[in-house]
């Protein structure tokens, strides 16, 4: 048998080896089966019965996940129950049955296709991955249309789970800490629910493999490297030995990481730093704190709009924000206002298509153009700030006038709440995201109006280097250690420190070992990232002296290219603090 090596996205670290298991998939019908007018009532009843069975299923799965992983991990199915009970979704299904006189299978299939097209049209990866939530619910309803449905069975022997896609409820049923050794899927990414569940269970997983489900046959031997993002089918004996060694080293590393969460976040020379979490759901705060997060550095509020077809009300917003603030208290929580528009289009907002959406009406520009929508969100955030641990963050600011304009709206909303007798934090901080070069160049001016800044390195680097990191032809030019990028980021951090204002980095650079060391050397003390990376970065920074990082970075800034800088910083840190790489790069040699 030929050896096949496939590259994907490592979303849950670790190495697993075993025989492949490929579960069966539910396939929506492509055939529109018509019914008579007299049959419509019975078909609507059939749909409602399927909805009731699905609700029972989701409650059972939610309770099972809560028992197995803890209550905080069952939040996925809270969202699914909300989707299932969405009047717009159910009304749409019923309307198709009535108006087209079609079977419920067709109504579900048509609705699923509509949602797939909607989500696939979005450029933002996080938004695209939310498609699985709606598909999961619709798949369950589809399966439950049959009164005598086939019982979902869990595997009885150890296996590597290989599939095109694993919907969240399927993941909850099929993923077993005892039997599922690893996961390999064609689709998905680090923020998908399958990835979240796999990490919760400690199961190595690689997603985004494109065609692994076609490359692997049932029973074939597979290696899943969730750390390196690789899947190997039918490996040779030598390759098996190599990955067995890697797995043993990683297990030692994993045990060490577990101890890190409870340790104080200080460097070797006792300089305090603050690891924080980037999250999308309030239910993620518990697991994030367990991983060592000292607050939420970035809460993406866009997901609230993805749960429904209609615009969320002030109470919808408030329920989410207050739950988040209470769950994190007294730790700080930074809520980013709606970052939508351009390529992040949603149907209930009726956003017009633009010729160049990345440079168009989005983020704070969209909010200022849609004041009523903006005020609803600001009112909810302010009401949730009563515990004095909430901060507001404005995305994609490009000039100081935008901040002044937002502050005027903000103050007007505060006056409105005071008249109503509603409590809120009078001193709630208002910050700006530095994610376009213009804002970076104006940091000192912006900080005369703003209380803090948050550097979004992902977008900042893309705009500054004119590189789309998702474009395979130019993604190699996306270089966080590019000397021009480092000069820009250093200038922002220095401006914030001079103004004695908080500065945090919330892009992927904060979750990279070398990137975090460079940022530490620049004077950064707050690092916000996907919670799964917090133990690794915390352990790495605890293994370095801040003054050493400062000296190394100062010399590195004299170099001409990203590769030179990477090699120099790696070699200097390896020479002085080799434990950093044991902390930051498990089962791998330091990059040379």
Keywords:
592 residues; Enzyme I, Chain A, domain 2; TIM Barrel; 8-stranded parallel β-barrel; 48% helix
Please identify the structural class as seen in this structure.
alpha/beta
Cα radius of gyration in angstroms: 25 Å
- Low-pLDDT stretches: 584-592
Give the beta-strand count.
16
CATH superfamily of the largest domain: Phosphoenolpyruvate-binding domains
What proportion strand? Answer: 5-15%
Number of domains: 3
- In round numbers, the mean pLDDT is 86
Structure, described:
This protein is of the alpha/beta class. The protein has three domains: 4-25 and 151-257, Glucose Oxidase, domain 1 (3-Layer(bba) Sandwich); 37-143, Orthogonal Bundle (Enzyme I, Chain A, domain 2), CATH 1.10.274; 261-584, Phosphoenolpyruvate-binding domains (TIM Barrel), CATH 3.20.20. It is built from 25 helices and 16 strands. The protein has an eight-stranded mixed β-sheet. The two termini are 34 Å apart.
């Amino acid at each position: 048998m030929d050896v096949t090596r496939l590259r994907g996205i490592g979303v849950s670290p670790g190495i697993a080896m075993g025989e492949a298991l490929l579960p069966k998939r539910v396939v929506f019908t492509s055939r529109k089966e018509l019914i008579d007018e007299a049959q419509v009532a019975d078909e609507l009843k059939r749909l409602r019965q399927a909805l009731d069975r699905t609700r029972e299923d989701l409650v059972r799965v939610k309770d099972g996940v809560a028992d197995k992983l803890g209550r905080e991990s069952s939040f996925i199915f809270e969202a699914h129950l909300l989707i299932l009970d969405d009047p717009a979704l159910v009304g749409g299904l019923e309307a198709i049955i009535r108006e087209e006189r079609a079977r419920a299978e067709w109504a579900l299939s048509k609705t699923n296709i509509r949602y797939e097209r909607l989500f696939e049209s979005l450029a933002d990866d996080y938004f695209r991955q939310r498609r699985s939530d709606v598909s999961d619910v619709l798949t369950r309803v589809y399966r439950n249309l049959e009164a005598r449905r086939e019982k979902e069975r869990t595997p009885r022997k150890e296996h590597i789970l290989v599939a095109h896609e694993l919907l969240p409820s399927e993941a909850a049923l099929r993923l077993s800490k005892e039997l599922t050794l690893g996961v390999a899927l064609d689709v998905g990414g680090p923020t998908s629910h399958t990835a979240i569940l796999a990490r919760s269970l400690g199961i190595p997983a690689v997603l985004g493999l494109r065609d692994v489900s076609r490359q692997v046959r049932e029973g074939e031997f597979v290696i899943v490297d969730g750390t390196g993002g690789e899947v190997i089918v039918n490996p040779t004996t030598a390759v098996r030995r190599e990955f067995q060694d890697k797995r043993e080293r990683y297990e030692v590393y994993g045990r060490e990481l577990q101890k890190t969460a409870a340790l104080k976040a200080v460097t070797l020379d006792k300089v305090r730093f603050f690891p924080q979490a980037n999250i999308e759901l309030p239910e993620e705060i518990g697991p994030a704190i367990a991983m060592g997060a000292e607050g939420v550095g970035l809460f993406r509020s866009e997901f609230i709009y993805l749960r429904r077809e209609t615009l969320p009300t002030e109470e919808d917003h408030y329920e989410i924000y207050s739950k988040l603030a209470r769950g994190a208290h007294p730790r700080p929580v930074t809520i980013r206002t709606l970052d939508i528009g351009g390529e992040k289009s949603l149907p209930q907002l009726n956003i017009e298509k633009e010729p160049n959406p990345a440079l168009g009406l989005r983020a704070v520009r969209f909010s200022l153009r849609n004041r009523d929508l903006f005020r609803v969100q600001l009112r909810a955030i302010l009401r949730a700030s009563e515990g004095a641990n909430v901060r507001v963050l404005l995305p994609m600011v490009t000039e100081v006038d935008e901040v002044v304009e937002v502050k005027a709206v903000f103050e007007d909303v505060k006056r409105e709440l005071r008249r109503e007798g509603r409590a809120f934090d009078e001193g709630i901080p208002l910050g700006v995201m530095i994610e376009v070069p213009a804002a970076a160049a104006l940091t000192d001016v912006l900080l005369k109006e703003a209380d803090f800044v948050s550097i979004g390195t992902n977008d900042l680097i893309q705009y500054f280097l004119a590189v789309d990191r998702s474009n395979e032809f130019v993604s190699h030019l996306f270089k966080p250690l590019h000397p021009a990028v480092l000069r820009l980021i250093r200038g922002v951090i220095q401006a914030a420190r001079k103004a004695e204002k908080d500065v945090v980095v919330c892009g992927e650079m904060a979750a990279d070992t070398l990137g975090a060391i460079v940022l530490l050397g620049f004077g950064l003390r707050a690092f916000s990232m996907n919670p799964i990376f917090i133990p690794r970065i915390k352990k790495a920074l605890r293994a370095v002296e801040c003054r050493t990082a400062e000296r190394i970075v100062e010399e590195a800034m004299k170099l001409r290219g990203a590769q030179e800088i990477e090699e120099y910083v790696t070699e200097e840190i390896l020479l002085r603090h080799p434990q950093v790489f044991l902390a930051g790069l498990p089962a791998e040699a330091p990059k040379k």
